[in-house]
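Subject — a protein and its fold

Tokens — whole-number codes for backbone shape
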Amino acid sequence: MAECPLRGEEVTDHPDRLWAWDKFIYLDEKQRAWLPLTIEIEDRLRVLLRQEDIELGNPMTPTQRGPSLLPILWQLYPDGRYRSSDSSFWRLVYHIKIDGVEDMLLELLPDD
């Protein structure tokens, strides 16, 4: 996770799972909300997830959520990777906290 361009406190307690609550919110196992921002740089899909305290509405089913570049679920695997519900792997680029706000950057890994 040395690629972090920002100065912040490195966080080592990563969410075990992130579930899609609705189209623009993921929840972790501690019921914390994470807001995704999808970025594509040099044909690499990345997602910046920011942990925010927000009021949650009703959850969406996968059908209600509709098509998305992002998976319905990410699960933490060893070696700083997340496996998504479509069986792809995402590398944890960094997970930091600045002024009490957590940011986590995931990058989609190419298929082996």
About this structure: Strands lie at 9-10, 17-22, 25-28, 33-41, 44-52, 73-77, 81-84, 89-98, 101-108. The chain has one helix and nine strands.
